[in-house]
Structure formats: structure tokens, C-alpha cells
Description:
Layout: H1 8-23, H2 47-50
Amino acid sequence: MQIESADLEVAAAQYSVALLDTVGSPPVLDLVDLGLGPDGHTVAATKELLGRRDS
């Protein structure tokens, strides 16, 4: 995402337009990069995330 504005609302609106121009409406994405954790995991459903604890 190239940011062309210091105003976050404006930057988000610009990116929204660019994304819809690229993938169409409704947006269809074949690949989504969710990031990588420091230990190499991606999107881990941890107890902390789910709000559960062992009893």
C-alpha cells in the first residue's frame, strides 16, 4: 500500500478506491497476506485470542 497522505482517513479512502479498481466490487482476493509472527506462525487461534483458559 502506497500512502500518499498524512491523513489516515484520506489514505484509507485512497486505498479503498485502489483496491476496488484492482479486484472489483465486491472485492475478490485470491491471496491474503495475514502477516507472520515472531516464531513463524500465521493466524494462531491462541487461548488469549479466544479468551479461554484451562480450568
